[in-house]
Predict the 3D structure of the following.
Amino acid sequence: MSPAMKKTIGHRGIDPTGETTYKKTTSSALQGAIQLGITHTVGSLSQKPERDVLLQDFEVVESIFFPSEGSNLTPAHHYGDFRFKTYAPMAFRYFREMFGIRPDDYMYSLCNEPLIELSNSGASGSLFYVSSDDEYIIKTVQHKEAEFLQKLLPGYFMNLNQNKRTLLPKFYGLYCVQAAGKNIRIAVMNNLLPSAVKMHLKYDLKGSTYKRRASVKEREKAVPTYKDLDFMQDIHEGLLLEGDKYSAVCKTIQRDCLLLQSFKIMDYSLLVGIHNVNQACQEQASEEAGAVDQRRPQGQKSLYSTAIEAIQAEAGSMGSLDTEDKTGGIPARNSKGERLLVYIGIIDILQSYRLVKRLEHSWKALVHDGDTVSVHRPSFYAERFQKFMCNVVFRKISCKSRISVLAGVLKTNFAACTSMRIMQSGRPDLLPKTLLASDAVGTTTETAVSSSLENPGFASTSHPLPHSQDAYKSVGVDLNNTLSKDQEHSTTKR
Amino acid sequence: MSPAMKKTIGHRGIDPTGETTYKKTTSSALQGAIQLGITHTVGSLSQKPERDVLLQDFEVVESIFFPSEGSNLTPAHHYGDFRFKTYAPMAFRYFREMFGIRPDDYMYSLCNEPLIELSNSGASGSLFYVSSDDEYIIKTVQHKEAEFLQKLLPGYFMNLNQNKRTLLPKFYGLYCVQAAGKNIRIAVMNNLLPSAVKMHLKYDLKGSTYKRRASVKEREKAVPTYKDLDFMQDIHEGLLLEGDKYSAVCKTIQRDCLLLQSFKIMDYSLLVGIHNVNQACQEQASEEAGAVDQRRPQGQKSLYSTAIEAIQAEAGSMGSLDTEDKTGGIPARNSKGERLLVYIGIIDILQSYRLVKRLEHSWKALVHDGDTVSVHRPSFYAERFQKFMCNVVFRKISCKSRISVLAGVLKTNFAACTSMRIMQSGRPDLLPKTLLASDAVGTTTETAVSSSLENPGFASTSHPLPHSQDAYKSVGVDLNNTLSKDQEHSTTKR
């Protein structure tokens, strides 16, 4: 980061030497404390016997003091005395296990190599790090966000156990570094967009149109994060998915939205990263510089699996043209028939506490978008979000579009892409041989796609979200009336 | 029930016609209301779309009024106006699904045949019914018990998702019949001891020795429910299990106890029903009246699976002598080598609210048993319970006892038992042919078993329950200290 950029945003600032600071702690000291702390907490946890997670585990906070001179439990260090707190250690151990992360791998990835500070941290005032192996994101979170995540944990547990294919952020840990009278809380999460895969397009989508266009400044970046209005303009035919994949993505989004709505969470986004396979092939051919950077070790377990997991269960052998992808992208097509890998995840779910502050803006935005019933805002938000994702962003591939997809495939220069395909698919035997053999040239002239006509619209077809008027009625009416009339003691509310 | 028995215990009484009453409602009216209510609630639930269970679903209460003249939602009836409440309908639907119970089967079993009132209801003042097909127990529960079960539901959900082989009661539903200004709350549970299988011995075990002997009155019954001291006297060698089954039972008890302890639950029991296969064979031979009553339909899915489920995952192909049993009993042996089927489950977990009232008694009992640290009573109770079950009640079968088991098998009159064995096992091909073929008579003289020497004691070997001094430390210390010093708002406690 250039020392010229002196701006302080929120708790994030720059010190006289040009180093980033957070609450006046330098980034390097914070990194050091995080690495010492996580090493200690994961190590001490592994010595505790396996047991089931209990309800009260969500509220536990473990704390250990790291004097700079060292103690019999902690090593000496040069970051100044600090205290390291681990929130709900047993619960997060369980979550990591559910996500298939071994304690050793977790500790190794986060603590044995330097963390990489992301210079492009955005307007939130948070500091972001990514682990050297690209697996984990560490993000500073505000006090209220940490508090909210703790409150969310029982519901998060329930969601993980029922909806294994969730697109919600994977929370691997919540910690706090206490130093010089300040608390710096951090969350460890999955890295949704692996840097090893070049994203040709990136979108932050909410389903709103109010002020949802990337700023001029954002557009100057190499890969800007575009917004809803940009998407509608640039990809007006949407991202085309095979039927089973489309259903699975929409069902997962619906289930996630229900959980978010139940916690009155709004303002979350769907982060969409699009890797254009055809474009990558051309780039590779012309540059001979890999569009896909090979940094990532081959044998490593993919953690970028959020997106593909969301569809794996339903994605049967429907004779898809798309081969399996190891990086977890969902195979899709654009209207030109180009092969895409789409990476998606729901982000920014902890910021509900901002609700009050941002009420005016939200209110305007919702009125602008037609919400006249302000009491139902979380359900309105969820419903609009789902509709947008399942009617505008994702569309079911139709017979007509399938033909043009074939055309697109044929137009691709296979020769230039062979190595790319093998790397991507790991299954060169899955190349569409029949297509190459057959003479499908007659169809190549048809490039128009009208999938939107075949797409009956998600929200109107199946499983409406049970909000206010529906299955939720009983919740609304009876939630505080859990026991009968002759009740003498007030029910413990949770 | 004879009209002579006029005694009122708790809310249970007898009216002038001799019919049982509960809170002055006749048993027949209560049954009618329960059946109408469950029919309605299960029916209306099946019309709601499938969705994930949310945290707030545990607190929902649905309510419907049944006027005797009928309404557009409810049929006319002759039980007097009543209101029927269903607690946490979505959550219990999820639990029933987890337990493999289809909505139709549930409704049919409970509502399409008369419920059978159990005359032998015990001293609690509760009224018990069993469904005609023997699958379900309906029990009236007190206000505080219902309240407690509701509070327990999130922890119960977590336990079911982690510890699928739990021995805790299977709660299928919690309802309330409101009539004539009274609330009658009922819980629907699994029937732990199927009447189709004759129990030769029955025990209610707590791990305590204080006053834990069946009363003279209890002993007069055909099959009394004996207690801890009786067990130690009658079955001093314990119930012998194969090694893998022993480990699985003890591990499950340990996990269940941890949950109970976390909810500060005490005074629960392990209900143990023992079917002696050898004895049943002899009885069958001499009486020609089936010791196993054939009432239960053959094709029906066994719900008496609590006990066997607890060991199924670990019970590999260890060359067990015991064949599979359809009724869910755990194959075991007594010290004479006789084949047993053991049915177990943890019962009476909702009565913690009695704690205050019964403090004096509990206190005495605990002091008598050596508990001097009264603050740790739930953990003390849990630990003593586990130790008793895994050191006294269940023992690992040893080589020595295995030999005497063979002897016992050989002594059995196979000819008299053929039909029995086939019915029990459903796998006549699994009969121990090699044993019959080989000449093991030389070992038949050895009948003494000393398995207790080979049993190193469960509690002292593996995974101590993490109570006060242990992994629980952090819970005890930090439970109320979930956020850091600069916290401005008090954390919402759950």
Notes: Chain B touches chain A through 61 residues (CB under 8 Å). The first strand of chain B starts at residue 12 and ends at 14.
